[in-house]
Amino acid sequence: MFDVSSPTRFDLNFSVAGIPVRVHPLFWVIAILLGGSSSPLLILIWIIAVFISILIHELGHAFAFRRFHVRSQILLHFSGGLTIPEQAAWGGGYTSVGLTPNQHIFVSLAGPFAGFAFAALILVFGSALGGSIIVSPLLGFISIPMLWMPAKLSFLNNVFTIFLWINIFWGLINLLPVYPLDGGQVSRAIFIQRDPLDGLVASLWLSVIVGGALALGGWFVFGSLYMAFLFGMLAFQSYQTLQAAKRY
User: Fold this and answer.
1) Backbone angles phi and psi of 78, in degrees to 5
2) Considering its fold, how many domains does the chain have in total?
3) pLDDT tier at 144 (50, 70, 90 boundaries)?
4) Is residue 208 included in any domain, yes or no?
5) In a domain, 227, yes or no
6) Structural domain boundaries, residue 193
7) pLDDT in tens, 51-78
8) Inter-residue contact 58 to 111 (CB < 8 Å)
């Protein structure tokens, strides 16, 4: 699901600060399907918010790679986004640049925290316009801050709410220990550091359990077929990897 999609003639290609970005056409299709609104304006706002938010997330990874002198490129596709490190010239060919476990953790966390920083900027900007911050409880234990604007700027409520929800809620989801999400990358690095022999297996079991729970929660709590399918597939992939790891 998170493999690199082949280029198509319908791809959108551009660069940000020297970092190449490619947007696969299925990215827009999935963004529209996830919009869940009958209002064309809200669907358009949703698509723009998803695009900007995921791009900022991936730029967080890309700039973290750059910190360790690793070039990378960004792909936005039907499963979200990928930041792909490029191979470096070595001798007469190319080789992958390995990061230390702590560097790998830093790169993994840079994406979600770039989104959190963007959400904080939105809150500051909205407050400067006269908006008031409220806290919206989610799942009974996660609270998402929202902005409510003065009546003359009320149309911004939907814009701010969508941006904050995507960057905070999905940022928190991305930190859960499900491979290959960022939290799964972090948990795998930590488990392997602590136990080089069995750490990989332990991290995969954790990914299976958490991924399966999120798939059930996505279906029964949120009523989201996409979330149920996504985390169900991730849990299944982790289980397949676990079975393969046990054979060696």
Assistant:
1) -70, -20
2) 1
3) confident
4) yes
5) yes
6) 177-248
7) 999 999 999 999 999 999 999 999 999 8
8) yes
Looking up tokens 């985390």 gives 231
How far apart CA 55 and CA 81 sit, in angstroms, is 8
Selection from 247, 186, 169, 176 nearest residue 208 by Cα: 176
List the structure tokens of 150. 């003065």
CA distance 248 to 238: 16
Q: Provide DSSP, 154-200.
A: TTHHHHHHHHHIIIIIHHHHHTSS-TTSHHHHHHHHHHHHH-TTTHH
Contact, 87 vs 68, CB < 8 A?
A: no
Cβ distance 235 to 208 under 8 Å?
Answer: yes
Q: How far apart are CA 36 and CA 86, in angstroms?
A: 36
Q: Is 82 within the bounds of a domain?
A: no
H or E stretch at 158: helix 156-164
Q: Which residues, in sequence order, are bridge partners of residue 81? A: 76
Is the predicted pLDDT of residue 3 greater than 90, yes or no?
no
On whether residue 33 sits in a domain, the answer given is no
Strand 72-77 relative to strand 19-23, pairing: parallel
Q: Can you give the length of the chain in residues?
A: 248
pLDDT at 171: 93
Distance CA 191, CA 197 (A): 10
Distance CA 134, CA 146 (A): 5
Cα–Cα dist 67/106, whole Å: 10
The residue written with tokens 């999905």 in the block is 170
Q: For residue 190, what are its two tokens?
A: 């930590």
